[in-house]
Amino acid sequence: MKRRDFFKIVTASGAAAAAGGCQQATESILPLVVPNEQIVPGVASWFATVCRECPAGCGVLARNREGRIVKLEGNPDHPVNAGALCLRGQAALQGLYHPDRIAGPMVREGSGGFKTATWEAAEKLVVEKLTALRGAGKGRAIALVSQLESGSVGALLDRWGQALGARPRVTLEPFAYEPIRAANRITFNRDAIPYYAFEDAETILSFGADFIETWLSNVGYARMFARMHSFRDGRAGTFIHVEPRQSLTASNADEWVRNVPGTEGLLALAILRVMVDEGMADRRFGDAVAGVDLKKAAETTGVAAETIKHVAKAFAHAKPGLAIGGGVAVTGSNATETQVAINLLNAAAGNVGKTVRFGPDSAYGKITPHAEVAALARAMAGGEIEMLVLGPGVNPAFTLPSGLKLADAIRKVAFVVSFANVPDQTSELAHVVLPATHWLESWGDYAPREGVLGLLQPTMAPIRDSRPMGDTLLRVGRAALGTEEGKGPLPWPTVEQYLKSAWEPLVKGDLEGALRRGGVFADVATAAVTAKIAPVDASPAKLEGDAAGLALLAYPSLRFYDGRSAISSWLQESPDTMTQAVWDAWVEVSTETAQKLGIARGDMLAVKSPQGTLELPAYVSPTLHPGAVAIPLGHRYTPYQQRLQYVAPDPRSMNPMTILPAATDATSGALAFMSVKVTLTKLGTRRPLAVLQATHDQDDRELAQHVDLRAAREQALRGKAPHEPPITLYADKQYPGPRWGMTIDVDACVGCQACVVACQAENNVPVVGKASAAYGRQLHWLRLERWAEGKPERPTNLFLPMLCQHCEVAPCEPVCPVFAAYRTDEGLNGQVYNRCVGTRYCGNNCPYHVRRFNWFQYEFPAPLEVQLNPDVTVRQLGVMEKCTMCVQRIVAGKDRARDEKRGVRDGDIVTACQQTCPTQAITFGNLKDEGSNATKLTHSPRAYHVLEEIGTRPSVTYLRKVVREHA
Amino acid sequence: MTAKAGVGALGVALLAILIFLAVSSWSRQPAVAKPSNQPINFPHNVHVGTYKIDCQYCHSEARRSEYAGLPSVERCMGCHKITGAALPEVKKLAEFHAKKEPIPWVRVNKLPEFTYFPHKAHIRAGLKCQTCHGPVETMTTYAAQTGPRLTNDLLNLVGLRPAPPPLTMGWCVDCHRKENATAGRHAPLDCVTCHH
Description:
The complex is a heterodimer of chains A (967) and B (196). Chain A has 967 residues and is of the alpha/beta class. Helix content of chain A is 26%, strand content 18%. In chain A, strand 7, helix 5 and strand 8 (170-171) form a beta-alpha-beta unit. By secondary structure, chain B is an all-alpha fold. Chain B has a domain at 35-70 and 105-194. Chain B is extended, with a radius of gyration of 22 Å. At the A-B interface, helix 1, strand 1 and helix 26 of A face helix 1, helix 4, strand 1, helix 6 and helix 8 of B.
């Protein structure tokens, strides 16, 4: 008997014995009772709406499969984001399906805890309170606080407040850019935040404005920045950034100028001085800078006079240029003066009306001034407020400086109603929680700027027992007023009805069309303004606290904004690009300070301000100004993130708001984030950070390459120098059909991490938690490497999105004992999960380190499993996985082309990372089609392959970053 | 008994136990529906055989989706409001419709979850449903012999070809190869076409 036959017989007989006892559970499949025209099981429907994760108001298309949203993408028709989305927008689904989402109405019990209640019972409590207050003539004791609502929903909330005689509504946004408004009032006599036309500028001079992270509209401006800055046909704009810290935005600058914190205004005036002195600006502007001395300014700002001079030249010679200001260092006590100085720069260079356009004004200009927020806090603390209504998305107990003592003030309010749908620090103080629907489940509208009216529609049915805030307010409002539906000041039965009536004059019967496009978009003409030239106070920002201390830069986080996005585990695990740290918060300490105090990365530090102490692990940074420490805002964990042991429980706060005083900018009254000096003490304990990139030094491996602007121009003109591919013994591979490939423009990549989160959302990539991530067991298919070149304190940063290179001669393939890794006929490096036995040889043999192993059976806690993409297998324990170039989208694209009886064209297949990229750095296409964009880019003189010398022949081509001569 | 034979016997015993464990944890396919399992005893033979109703009249998603789909309760009632309204099984249907409840059909065909099988592409290629699902027009209860079931897998393993259609991967690939060779089609053979 042959060995093989023996096995066959043993197997068959053993199996036959077992077969009798083999019973599996049955599964039922349910048909629809009444067919729904919009839903075909297995085919996605798309709904247009507006992202409400921050006030930028990007257009979103939500992909609905069998009634549930599985992916968000930018709306290509929306003028703000044109199809792109940032990582917070991508991760909004984690808020929608958050495991801690409030299941239904809750009412505070006498014992202090919450108990669940019916909507009727909970609303009755609210109605009773409203009626009692109105009866007693104390309407003014009712306060309504919401996030920024710039459309007709805001008008409805105001109407509700007026009908009940409440205080004027407060829109609460911690990042309100009030100094820009105040400065525009002073210089241009216009209380507005204009549209900055990055795309038309030749040179951008930014004073701390972190437009790639959070400033005003990070997707929109990053998109326009790429149009202005990235290299094409020999043209490329220049970007100069002034900031004490090398933020992600600063690291994208051609020249980063590190200044003493709080001296941006003086620096702007010094630049203006040079422009006036050297005849680059009208003499009239001399009045504004009469008292500014270049030498003194250089001393105070810590920026060399030479640098100031050449920045002035670069800025003044641009036709046109653009100066902008923002970020944490421009929110000190002199914030308005700084912005006035920046306005004067724009006026002197003739940029106003060209790149600074009033007319299409930003919605940020409608945020309630901080002075009124502070007044409300005082009124609450003084017992004047008896009922506080908090809309979803506002969390003042967490997102405002503890110096304002808002949590204490809210505790003084007798009756607090919260519409939060995930518990937060403020909803914990509420008496009644009436969970509002998530914005993806709601009707609404939002106008991010004049002329752009976005429309929100429910993209799926609420997943929890929640109701739209507007519906609830209308109902309780009517009950308190004693009016009926259709009558009185609040006649509409629902927000939907209200919205449809409010939009009727705009859409003139075609609401359907507006819903399909995502709103109504029009261009608004630029309004003419004239600048008033007056002397500006150039004194640096005043800081409280120990005079010998370090200026605290509490900066808005790209990942969490003010903290509202910290509920997302995807975002917690997407690395901060500059530090590559995940999960934890940290205090960034300069090398000088670290040496003085003997601090190493991961050492716990006590950061002490007059307001309190914060204990955080240290991250030593060679780039930070020695006079400053920096802490990202908004870090917090939600209960489920700790319950699942993504992080070890630690009750200590991670948010620098807890040590900020209630300081303001003197002129505008705006909240000052840079207002205090802190002292550092080593605690002697350690909390190591999970940093996903071991080194930022390329060690001459030339993974991320760059080319001089002059050389790039020459190459663009004359073509690439002849380049010999490495000698090989392998024959060229033949492709009967298409060959898929990708190009990534390192020059365009700004390191925003949107692609990383988009990939995670599309491909069912699980979250592993801090400890596993620190072991290098994160499962991201796409990572964003930061490589620093040059001097450590002033590096040139290169961002390299690294994913499976789909090598033609792939080192992973021959080592797989079960042929799970193999080469497809279309040039992909396939990974067959059901074959994989988990030897991990492929991962070890991959020179790009892009293969990921499932060390555990990772959980998708309910209801997060609803988000899983049904087109992608959920991998299990012991399986190796990696980037598939979104093969499910390739299959779908080919299917669509076949339906139309044609071949696949450019644009049929768009990978998830490419789709969301604000700067369009990623291009996917058929490399055998000479006309495809991807092929054209692979012929660029800037094209190269990472680790070309090892002969893997990748299908991913990178384009070198173009660096400016003076950088 | 020699020591050598003892070791051999122990080896065989261990092997048998291992195989038993492996086989008893088999879980590729939910149990096959028997007539009593289905909430309504739906006779395919009457609908397809006698009345010659097109498969896609009821399974209308097959031409546009990955799934073939089930008829909505409304669609069943489209005919059965009048036709056969007095039959006991149709009365059950009417009851579901009156309660506005979906019919909890027991799933018969299920490919493993790591397999992407689009009905649409196969309909577009002009395949008959019967090629994969068997002679549905003769079945009183659709169930029985189809699916990547244990017996089919075992028959494959020992080199015997199970009765068609077994819906195993080897059987899928055989058909794709044959069609490409004889009919000049371009049926994909890439693993990642179905496994992604």
